[in-house]
Specification:
about 1900 residues; 30 strands
């Protein structure tokens, strides 16, 4: 047997299979199993065991052939194993199930085992895309998650929870108190039920213990055999997937076992972890060739599993490492260069040594340490270990992962599995790196690891026992080593530093993500982090790892041409720094919060400085950074900075104890400062040749997710350096880095060797802004966390109003997700409510929906707006401007400051004592020189200076005054020391005293062309503002020294001296020797104007400059007057506010006041300066060039004013236009286009064409048309007879049936009529168009039809992508851009006729009836003769075609004979009906509001009637069939019809009266006379009234009927009998009693009879309600045809008002007795005769069909307004029901489920499963349900999508969270609640058919939704 199997496996020829002994096969499985179980239950069970082993051997070996197929050998061989490969496998599984159950039924066995499940944990495992919950209130670990069932069964009301879609998969933590608080457990897992669960009986699981080891071994054999080492060219995946598919049933079987509960899981744990079992089975391979082969494959696979390389053939045993040793050899890792070469393991053939680095030998790890285990080939000791090994090898198949995770609730297994996982960690990394599907694999790895490492207890145990930290760090290091390149930073040739290459797949695809994520996860546990921080070896290794990222992605500035290829590697670089460096850093920082942890910080800082020192050495850094390079990545600097900050803030460490020496500080500041300068350069467009990506880097660097790991630590580090280094040195370094040193000269012209003139201004602004930020920012210098949060929030809110979620996103959170600082924690909400007001979501008339926004409170603008913070946090420069604009608007509005304010000055949080040195920057001569120079230059209007520069200068002076180093003695100034000769600018370093120091002369170096040089007059007058030249020009050419020469500076003083030489050396002694300076840059002769020295007379001090600037800014002489001269109080009790608004003038006043307050001398000098009547500011000699610019300015100003005026005018025009044309419902007067009819003179209606702009009447040859949009609509069909809207179904029981909709009722009626009556007659008896009716709307603009055609042509040729399809005739109105698709011709006609129509003639009603009949009979008596084809008639025909094509064929064809003219006839008058009914709906269902039509200004009914009438008259109704005759004439031969064979006509009482009205009117020649109209209405009203009485009589009970019959009969002969409803009712009853109509009462018809007796009042009300719909439509029609206004009225009197308005009542008389509807009747023929004639038709029909006869008589005429379905309050109820619901068509759970909000149908969005003839389900449904308009709620996204014809748009969401925000795609997963206002807006747009106009973003859906 074994031989056969082996041969099969080897794929050799198959020997004939010896049959199994028949007896064994015959014995059915169950019996065998029972027999074996019995045998095994005996005390001496050896025999049974052997028998079972033999059986298993045989059964499970039957599977062998299959593996052969899997291994890719000839599949033919596999066919041998009985019935194809699948059969043997099935058989084996069947056997296993039988054996486990021990002869019983397998299902019963499962149930029995489940009974012993001590379900304390849920442990449900899910895969990606599963919807789960996370509750932050209940979670201990931030990774905690719950399945929906456990979440809803627990109590989480008021908690901070959200729903999320799982990215990588996960498992439910309910019941696990390590991960979550017990209060959050659900009902099932609250009971710690293990106590009351009985013990598992021994024999229940006995068989499992025997069978499962064999089964699992068999599975492992399979996995071994299916695996082939990948050949060089063959991709591995295909083979692997094939094997996995074959193993599907086995793994599923195991998975099912795990679901049986705790009892079975513990058996499995035993089997998986038992080392003896594993040993016995795997070593007892002996003679089985096939097993041997698979074992060899296993050994090959194992070979590549270690991190060692084949050449080191040292195989270490897996001895346990002794606890004490540090893991990695420290000396090995911190090798001289600190670099590690390439990994060249056996299976990475792809690495050639071409990078020059691969050749260098890797730094060997010293083999002396004992933990070779990390490096070594794996050794397996149990099934679990080998199963995990294969799981990894096969790249984590989902099924295997789920099986391994399902076992986790078993505690013993959990520990064993975690250890195994750690043991395989290095192997996981290798597999991941090679994988082609690294994304999927990453997710699966994290799916497992997050379950293991989130548990602190477990993580601690593994850290202690398995060296988890060492393994992780080593593995990460190894991983990164494979992609290192040489760093080009600084010294390209000799650099020894290596950095990761961001272009490699490893970084680009974030392949390192799972490993880093695990590392961050375990560092979040305090016990683990402590071990890490205590272990020096680990810290060294980690800093080594971090240094790989130091200086990566270096940018070099392109100076010549634009870079060819913009690399996008910067994404990878920023992501890598954030994830691999910053997040672990934040994780570690979170454990350094208290004093006891000082030691940890000292450790980190120490190794960080060592690593930095190594780095400086490696890149050969001396003192100057290489020019034109910048890297944004300095993680070592940032580690150092953040730990320093923490040390001072939380651990009370002395800052100086952790700071290095001065030289190191100087080095440390260079690179962060370089970044700040580069930011300014990038924003000054100096890097523009590097492409857009460099801007992207600058933005990412300050962006909210990165800023607190990047720019904040950088600025903090610079602040620390500034507080400890010499201030003059620091200030000079700043200006040098920003390349603006040459600009800081008193001379009006200068040369700049390093900067182009156009960049000077923005770089100077950049330098000053940076200085201001450096000196004002207190993020790490003393602000508390709450203050920081508040400042961040204020800055974001000042830029723009923000939604809650965007604020959460913009506030830089601690970026380590596991740090436990949770966004949305309590302080966030409390700070938010303190600084901001909530603006609830509103709707603009345009329909765009706002979200709920937070906007800063007034006092925040007033007290807290901080421009410095705003500048620091803006990603886009425009946001700074936006904040300033909002601030200005606030000040204007609140009346605090009218002008253009400057950024306000804000008092800062006090500095932490450790950083006091920072303020020395403000009190150093270098800064004072700069400030003085800039003030002077601004006063003198030198070029390249801006208001912004002045603003910053004043800000710095004010900062200096606020932070002066204490009261200075007034005598100090007189001290003359040796200092004077050295620095002749200022006497001391205190700003307060330096402010008053007068500077007389300054020696400057200027180009020879400068004005200072040209002057001849030696002693010019004082009015020469530039001062006179004291010395004649010197011929000696002085070359400028280049600041870029690199010198090693040992002394700070030298740098300072050098800087002050570069800035103008100035001296009061003009004869001081100027040292010649040598230049290393040689310039071509004559190319640069040569420099010469000049001496300027200045005679100013900072104070005098300020006062002069005050005059200059205010534009008045002597504008400054010291305030204390009037009010001495100011000096004694100065009330200087903490926060000041104002502009430059107020800023100067503030500074002068502060200066005076701080020293008496300053006060005196200010007074003196003001006393000298300031000489008028010298009139500048205006050169022509300057004059030009001035003129330009003036002209610009004027142009601006003109533009403002124009814009304002345009805006007001636009506003008035919007009001007339756009607003959806404002009942305003008509727009002038439709000229009112009251004009007496004879005039034709004049139309304006919006294309050519000409006005004129519409004529036959050149007709004008209205711009219209035709759309099919089923809104009317959705009316129901109940006012309560239907609810959206949210359980299986609730279903919506469309039986009671208006469309359904009308359909039923029509088909009933068609069953019994003649078809052509049926089609005149009703209207269609309830579903798929055509609605016509216009924006009211007109155009010539020929103009329109050329407009369409131009649109067709326009290549711009439009949101509409021109081929379908769609366009936008050229004037108002409203969407349209057709043009409705205006009928030419003059207003004279209009007046004629209205004249009342005195004809009697009988005459009028005859007129009507004649006019209807006259064919085509139409002013336009049809025969001659005019342009007008052509257009009318084409628009009719358009109307027909608007709706689908099924909504037009109701006739039984297709294509019959009756169809068209019915369709046309129904179009009129649809439009009238819809207008009624828009008015709210009644006409009580009266007035002109809301749609009046935009109504096109008049034009539409002309078009319809024209076409209706083409079909003349045969006069016999004309219902008009039946209404107005008595027919003698009543019985004649019955004899006919064919179907009878529809009895007149079954006709729909409104339809009759439209038919009669459209059959008349247009324009219609008012008399004829009234006549038709009167006649039809009589019919309607009788219909009402008939319906009433059917509804009454038998007794009621006989009562009414008698009452009426008594009064039949009175004079007013025809106008009394009692008489008419009794007559109707008696007539109808002749037929069978009232028979068969009381059986099932009882439902129809109302139990209450009818009182006269209730009958009157019934009749009025019955007639009202007709009266409303008729009044609307009259209003449109004759332009008469509708009177407004109360609801009670609507009937009477409309009746009198229509002329049914002689005049509307207000009498005492209640109004009676019957008084409106006006009979043209004797009432009783005609009634009996009508009743006769009914009787003859009810002879055969009583039921149907009755049903047709009772019409529901009172339809309520249409509504969308009512939605539940909470979105979760919808989501939970629908997101798991299966589709009724394809019975799968759709990927994108959606539900129709009109009818509640559940559909698959984009589902290919439900596609029919290329239409996806949503599109199809939108056609069936809404005739092309669909409104769908997308369940998984909470948004509503609108489908309109061939286009669709996302409408938005009607569900908002507690902060008034949408949550599209449910990303945030917060609870959502219905927003009633939004839903109303949606419904309103649906009813008014304005989706097309209001929503702007439409796109084609190509039937794919």
């Amino acid at each position: 047997m074994a031989a056969a199997a082996a041969a099969a496996a080897a794929g050799g020829p198959q020997p004939p299979q010896p049959e199994l002994p028949a007896s064994v096969l015959a014995l059915d499985k169950a019996a065998t199993a029972a027999h074996l179980k019995a045998a095994l239950s005996r005390p001496d069970n050896r025999a049974g065991a052997e028998e079972l082993q033999a059986l298993l051997e045989r059964v499970l070996s039957a599977e062998r052939p299959l593996a052969a197929a899997a291994g890719g050998e000839e599949a033919a061989a596999a066919g041998g194993g009985g019935g194809g490969p699948g059969a043997a496998e099935e058989e084996a599984l069947e056997w296993c199930k039988c054996l486990l159950a021990g002869g019983g039924g397998y299902d019963e066995f499962c149930a029995a085992v489940r009974a012993y499940d001590p379900a304390a944990l849920c442990g449900l495992v899910w895969t990606a895309n599963f919807v789960a919950y996370r509750c932050r209130t209940c979670g201990i670990s931030p990774c905690m998650s719950l399945c929906a069932e456990c979440f809803h069964q627990g109590d989480h009301t008021g908690h901070d929870f959200n729903m999320f879609r799982s990215q990588a998969g996960g498992a439910c933590d309910c019941g696990d108190s390590n991960v979550m608080r017990e209060s959050g457990f659900c009902k099932r897992h609250q009971l710690k039920s293990s106590s009351n669960i009985p013990c598992v009986p021994k024999d229940l699981l006995m068989m499992s213990e025997f069978v499962l080891p064999r089964f699992i071994f068999c599975l492992i054999q399979y996995l071994r055999e299916g695996y082939n080492e990948p050949a060089a060219d063959v991709p591995l995946e295909k083979d692997l997937n094939k094997v996995l598919q074959l193993l599907e049933p086995q793994i599923s079987f195991l998975e099912d076992l795990t679901k049986m509960g705790g009892a079975m899981r513990s058996v499995l744990t035993q089997v998986l972890t038992n080392q003896q079992n594993y040993k016995d089975l795997t070593s007892g391979l002996g003679e089985n060739a096939c097993a041997k082969k698979s074992h060899e494959k296993y050994l090959i696979a194992l070979k590549s599993s270690g991190l060692t390389y084949p050449e080191d053939k040292l195989v270490y045993g897996m001895q346990e490492p002794s606890a004490g040793t540090s893991t990695l050899a420290v000396q090995g890792f911190a090798g001289a260069t600190g670099t590690l070469g390439q990994v060249d393991s056996s299976d990475e053939e792809d690495q050639d040594g071409s990078q020059g680095l691969g050749k260098r030998k890797r730094v060997k790890l010293s083999s002396g340490t004992k933990d070779q285990s990390i490096m070594d080939v794996l050794k397996h000791k149990s099934f679990l270990e080998e199963l995990l090994f294969w799981t990894i090898k096969y790249e984590f198949p989902q099924k295997m992962v789920t099986f391994l995770l399902n076992m986790l609730p078993d505690q013993e297994y959990k520990v064993a599995f975690t250890k195994t996982f750690v043991q395989h960690y290095a192997f996981i990394m290798k597999t991941l790196k090679k994988s082609h599907e690294s994304d999927t694999m990453s997710n699966r790895i994290v799916h497992i690891s997050v379950q293991l490492f989130s548990n602190e207890e477990l993580a601690r145990q593994v850290t202690e026992e398995c060296q988890l930290l060492d393994i992780m760090v080593t593995v990460l290091l190894y991983m990164m080593e494979s992609c290192l390149i040489k760093s080009e930073l600084q010294d390209e040739e000799n650099s020894l530093h290596v950095v990761v290459n961001c272009g490699e797949a490893l970084l680009k695809n974030n392949t390192y993500w799972p490993l880093v994520s695990d590392f961050i996860n375990i560092l979040s546990h305090q016990s683990v982090a402590k071990r890490f921080l205590e272990d020096h070896g680990l810290l060294v290794t980690w800093m080594n790892f971090v240094s790989f990222f130091q200086g990566m992605n270096l940018n070099k500035r392109e100076l010549n041409e634009h870079v060819e290829f913009e690399s996008q590697t910067y994404y990878a670089a920023f992501a890598a720094e954030l994830e691999a460096c910053a997040q672990p850093m934040w994780g570690l920082l979170s454990h350094c919060k208290v004093r006891e942890t000082q030691e940890y910080t000292q450790n980190v800082v120490r190794y960080c400085l060592e690593a930095l020192q190594d780095w400086f050495d490696a890149i050969n850094f001396v003192d100057e950074p290489a020019p034109n390079q910048v890297t944004f990545h300095l993680p070592l600097h940032r580690y150092y900075a953040m730990f320093l900050s923490k040390a001072v803030k939380c651990q009370e460490l002395d800052l100086d104890s952790v700071l290095p020496d001065q030289e190191m500080l100087m080095k440390l500041m260079i690179h962060p400062l370089q970044i700040q300068a580069s930011l300014a350069e990038i924003h000054s467009n100096m890097w523009v040749r590097n492409g857009l990506q460099i801007k992207g880097q600058a933005m990412t660097y300050v962006q909210s997710h990165f800023c607190n790991s990047m720019i904040d630590p950088d600025i903090y580090l610079l602040q620390v350096c500034a507080s400890r280094l010499d201030p003059d040195y620091f200030i000079s370094s700043i200006f040098e880095r920003f390349k603006v040193v040459d600009l800081l000269t008193m001379a009006s012209q200068h040369q700049n060797t390093v900067l182009d003139a156009e960049h000077e201004r923005s770089m100077l602004e950049g330098a000053l802004t940076f200085l201001v930020i450096l000196l004002s920012l207190r993020l790490h210098l003393g602000m508390s966390d709450d203050e920081i949060l508040r400042a961040e929030m204020v800055a974001q809110l000042c830029m723009n109003d923000r939604t809650h979620s965007s604020l959460l996103d913009l506030i830089p959170e601690n970026p380590n997700p596991k740090s436990g600082i949770i966004p949305g924690s309590y302080s966030f909400e409390s700070v938010l409510s303190a600084v901001a007001d909530f603006k609830a979501p509103v709707f603009e008339p345009g329909g765009s929906m706002q979200q709920g926004m937070y906007t800063p409170k007034a006092e925040v603008w007033d007290q807290e707006f901080d421009p410095v913070m705003v500048i620091l946090r803006t990603v886009y420069r425009r946001d700074v401007q936006s904040a300033m604009d909002r601030y200005t608007a606030f000040l204007k509005q609140s009346g605090k400051f009218p002008g253009n304010p400057w950024p306000p000055y804000k008092k800062r949080t006090p500095l932490h004592p450790s950083y006091k040195g920072l303020m020395r920057l403000l009190h150093c001569k270098t800064l004072h020189i700069v400030l003085f120079t800039l003030l002077y230059k601004i006063l003198m209007d030198h070029q390249n200076l801006s208001e912004h520069v002045l603003c910053m200068v004043l800000y710095l002076i004010e900062l200096g005054l606020e932070n002066s180093p204490g009261e200075e003695s007034d005598e100090e100034a007189s001290v003359v020391g040796p200092e004077r000769c050295h620095d002749s600018w200022f006497p001391g370093s205190n700003l307060v005293s330096n402010m008053r120091h007068f500077i007389n002369y300054v020696r400057v170096r200027v180009p020879e062309t400068a004005p200072e040089v040209k002057r001849d007059s030696l002693a010019s007058t004082s009015s020469d503002s530039l001062g006179s030249l004291q010395s004649s020009r010197r011929p000696k050419v002085l070359q400028r020294e280049n600041s870029g020469t690199a010198q090693v500076f040992s002394l700070v003083a030298e740098r300072r001296k050098k800087f002050q030489e570069i800035i103008n050396r100035c001296s009061s002694e003009a004869n001081q020797v100027v040292r010649p300076k040598t230049s290393s840059k040689w310039s071509a002769p004559g190319s640069v104007p040569q420099l010469t020295t000049a001496i300027l007379e200045i005679k100013e001090s900072i104070l005098s400059l300020l006062i002069k600037l005050h005059h200059k800014l205010s534009g008045k002489q002597n504008s400054y007057y010291p305030p204390w001269l009037d009010d001495i109080e100011i000096l004694i009790q100065p009330e200087i506010p903490k926060y000041s608004h104002g502009d430059g003038i107020t800023a100067i006043e503030r500074i002068l006041l502060k200066a005076a307050l701080q020293s008496r001398m300053n006060k005196r000098i200010i007074e003196e300066i003001c006393r000298k009547v300031t000489p008028p500011v010298p009139p500048k000699k205006i050169t022509t060039a300057e004059k030009k610019t001035l003129d330009k300015e003036e002209r610009r100003q004027k142009a601006r004013e003109r533009q403002q005026k124009l814009l304002a005018e345009f805006a007001s025009r636009q506003k008035s236009f919007m009001e007339t044309a756009m607003d959806v419902d404002s009942p305003e007067t008509d727009i002038p286009m439709e000229i009112t009819t009251a004009e007496p003179q004879v005039s034709e209606t004049v139309y304006d064409c919006v294309i050519c702009g000409q006005s004129g009447p519409s004529s036959e040859d050149r007709p004008t048309g209205l711009v219209v949009l035709l759309q099919a609509s089923s809104v009317l069909g959705q009316c129901r007879d109940s006012t309560e809207p239907k609810k959206l179904p949210i359980t299986e029981e609730e279903q919506i049936y469309p039986w009671d909709t208006c469309a359904a009722v009308h359909d039923v009626r029509l088909s009933l009529l068609q069953r019994y009556f003649k078809d052509s007659s049926c089609l005149l008896a009703v209207s269609i168009g309830w579903e798929g009716g055509v609605y016509v709307q216009t924006c009211g603009h007109t155009l010539h039809i020929d103009c329109h055609k050329s407009y369409m042509e131009s649109l067709r040729n326009d290549q711009v992508l439009q949101g509409f399809s021109v081929d379908k005739g769609e366009f936008t109105c050229p004037l108002c851009r409203q969407f349209a698709n057709s043009v409705l011709p205006c009928y030419p006609g003059s207003n004279v006729e209009n007046n004629l129509w209205k004249r009342a003639s005195n004809k009697s009603i009988q005459d009028l009836i005859k007129d009507v009949e004649e006019l209807q009979g006259r064919p085509g008596a139409f002013p336009v003769s049809i025969s001659s084809e005019t342009n007008l008639s052509k257009e009318m025909e084409s628009v009719m075609k358009d109307i027909k094509n608007t709706t689908q064929k099924k909504y037009r064809d109701y006739s039984k004979t297709p294509g019959s003219p009756d169809n068209d006839f019915l369709f046309m008058y129904s179009v009129a009906r649809t439009n009238l009914e819809l207008e009624l709906v828009h008015r709210g269902g009644n006409l009580c509001s009266g007035g002109a039509s809301t749609a009046g200004k935009r109504s096109c009914l008049n034009q539409l009637f002309h078009v319809l009438a024209l076409h209706m008259r083409l079909y003349s109704i045969d006069s016999e069939y004309n219902p008009w005759r039946k209404l107005t004439q008595l027919i003698e031969e009543m019985n004649s019809q019955l004899g006919n064979e064919e179907q009878p006509e529809v009895p007149i009482l079954y006709h729909d009266v409104t339809s009759l009205l439209l038919i009669q009117i459209l059959m008349m020649p247009q324009p219609l006379h008012k008399d004829h109209f009234t006549c038709i209405v009167k006649v039809l009203f009589t019919l309607l009234y009788i219909q009402g009485l008939v319906a009433l009589s059917v509804k009454c009970s038998e007794e009621d009927r006989s009562t009414w019959k008698h009452v009426g009969a008594l009064r039949k002969n009175t004079c007013e009998a025809e106008k009394s409803y009692e008489v008419l009712l009794s007559f109707v009853i008696s007539e109808l009693s002749k037929g069978k109509l009232y028979h068969e009462e009381g059986t099932q018809e009882g439902a129809m009879v109302s139990p209450i007796a009818w009182s006269p009042e209730s009958m009157e009300k019934y009749l009025q309600d019955f007639c009202l719909p007709f009266l409303r439509i008729t009044s609307l029609l009259q209003h449109h045809l004759f332009g008469e206004d509708l009177p407004a009225c109360q609801e009670e009197e609507e009937f009477a008002v409309l009746a009198s308005c229509l002329g049914l009542l002689p005049t509307f008389y207000q009498t005492e007795h209640p109004f009676i509807s019957a008084s409106c009747l006006d009979w043209s023929v004797p009432a009783f005769d005609i009634i009996s004639q009508w009743c006769f038709e009914i009787n003859s029909f009810t002879e055969q069909h009583t039921e149907q006869g009755k049903a047709l008589l009772i019409q529901e005429s009172r339809w309520k307004l249409p509504h969308l379905l009512q939605l539940p309050e909470n979105y979760n109820t919808i989501f939970q029901y629908y997101h798991r619901k299966t589709c009724s068509v394809c019975t799968k759970v759709p990927k994108d489920p959606a539900v129709c909000l009109v009818c509640g149908t559940f559909v698959c969005l984009k589902g290919l499963c439900c596609k029919q003839q290329s239409f996806c389900e949503c599109v199809l449904h939108s056609q069936n349900c809404g005739a092309g308009t669909g409104i769908f709620l997308l369940i998984n996204a909470s948004v509503i999508i609108i489908i309109r014809g061939h286009r669709f748009c996302l409408w938005g969401s009607v569900y908002l969270d507690a902060h008034g925000e949408e949550d599209r795609d449910l990303r945030r997963g917060k609870p959502l609640y219905i927003c009633k206002e939004r839903y109303k807006v949606l419904e309103q747009q649906w009813i008014s058919h304005t989706f097309d106009h209001i929503n702007k973003r439409w796109g084609p859906h190509y039937n794919g939704l």
